[in-house]
Amino acid sequence: MTPPAVSTIAANYVAQINMLPMLNGANFKMWKENVEIVLGCMDLDNALRTEKPTSTQENPNTDKIEKWERSNRMCLMIMKCFVPEAFRGSIVETTDAKLFLKELEQYLARNEKAEIGQTLSKLINMRYKGKGNIREYIMEMSNLAGKLKALKLELPSELLMYLVIIHLPAQYSQFVVNNVQGPLRSS
Q1: CA distances, 160 to each of 139, 144, 152 (Å)
Q2: d(Cα 42, Cα 27) in Å, to the nearest integer?
Q3: How many Cα atoms occupy the beta-carbon half-sphere of 70 within 13 Å?
Q4: Which of 21, 34, 35, 135 has the most CB atoms lying inside 10 A of its own CB?
Q5: Backbone dihedral region of 43: left (phi > 0), alpha (psi from -120 to 50 degrees) or beta?
Q6: CA 54, 58, 60, 63 torsion: positive or negative?
Q7: How far apart are CA 34 and CA 104, in angstroms?
Q8: 53 and 61 Cβ atoms separated by less than 8 Å
Q9: What is the DSSP letter of 173?
Q10: Are 79 and 97 in contact (CB under 8 A)?
Q11: Helices 62-81 and 28-41: crossing angle, nearest 10°?
Q12: Of 40, 103, 28, 32, which Cα lies nearest the Cα of 71?
């Protein structure tokens, strides 16, 4: 059996790399898993799995060090291709692939907390202004609750109902009284 041509191997690598999704902040877990799978299939994940080998006078480890350094360099290049510049500019510049991944994860975790705070604030402060369809107001509040759920902060449906009805204008007072007092009496 003849070995595959270099161009076939390169085409296979390019196809695998092109399957990686672009990191968008909300898909980090899936992105990281895909990166690890692709780098593993390409046998380039050594730098993510092991610490850099050291050399001593009696054991120079030159082959291991060269393989690790190549793995580290390739991991960084491939990961950076699928990380937007805005994210890369916000984390500490590093030449270590494992550290780059860790810094990226910490940065996105901080961003996620900020996004939770902003979305929760929007939800709590949202008011129906009396213009337009009340259904759109309710749907917008439900969408904000859905965003919070995607960010791993799930609000009880009863709380969402109260947030919707307590911010309705006076013309809906009968609706508010009937819906707020009803659930409270049954508890």
Answers
A1: 11, 10, 16
A2: 22
A3: 9
A4: 35
A5: left
A6: negative
A7: 15
A8: yes
A9: H
A10: yes
A11: 140
A12: 40
pLDDT in tens, the chain (187 residues): 556 676 787 778 788 888 899 998 778 888 999 999 999 989 999 999 999 999 888 888 899 999 999 999 999 999 999 999 888 888 888 999 999 999 998 888 877 788 888 889 999 888 887 777 888 888 999 999 998 888 788 999 888 888 888 877 777 766 655 555 544 433 3
User: Which amino acid, 128?
Assistant: Y
DSSP letter string, 125-137: H----SSS-HHHH
Kindly state the tokens that stand for 78: 């491939």
User: Amino acid identity, residue 39?
Assistant: L
In this predicted structure, what is the pLDDT of residue 22? 92
**CB neighbours of residue 85 within 10 Å:** 8
- How far apart CA 163 and CA 119 sit, in angstroms, is 14
Q: Which two tokens stand for residue 13?
A: 């690598």
